[in-house]
Amino acid sequence: MLSYFEFGSEDGIPYLDMGSSASSVKMRLTNTRLSFVQPGDSATELAYFSDNRLFITKMEAVEQISIGTTENGF
Q1: Three-state SS for 25?
Q2: Of 4, 45, 59, 60, which has the most beta carbons under 10 Å away?
Q3: Rounded-to-integer distance, Cα 16 and Cα 9, Å
Q4: 72 occurs within a structural domain
Q5: Does residue 73 lie in a domain region?
Q6: Residues 6 or more apart from 39 whose CB is under 8 A from it?
Q7: What is the pTM of this model?
Q8: Strands of the 26-29 sheet, one edge to the other
C-alpha cells in the first residue's frame, strides 16, 4: 500500500491532497474546506465540510441514521 501527500494550488487556492493506493477516494484540505474527492477524468466531489456544515452528494444508510440529539428529539 502506498500513501501520498501532495501540495498544490488550484485557481490560486493552496491545497493538500492525501490518499492511498488502497482507495480511489482522496482527501483535499484547503484553508476553508475539507473535501473527499473521487479522482478521474471529471473529478467528483463526494462530500465536504465547510462553514461548520457537512455536505454529502449521495448517502446510503445501511443500519441506522439519527439526526439531532435526545434533548431536541431526534
Answers
A1: coil
A2: 45
A3: 9
A4: no
A5: no
A6: 24, 26
A7: 0.72
A8: 3-10, 13-20, 26-29, 34-38, 44-50, 53-56
The grid cell for 69 is 440529539
Identity at 56, one-letter amino acid code: I
pLDDT tens sequence across 35-73:
999 877 777 889 999 999 999 988 888 998 888 888 877
Containing domain of residue 37, as a range?
3-56
Nearest-angstrom CA–CA distance, 39 and 57: 15
Tally the residues of the chain: 74
Residues 16-27 pLDDT 10s = 999 998 888 999
Report d(CA 39, CA 24) in Å as an integer.
7
Domain count along the chain: 1
Domain membership of residue 66 (yes or no) is no
Q: 27, 36 in Cβ contact below 8 A?
A: yes
Judged by DSSP in three states, 3 sits in strand
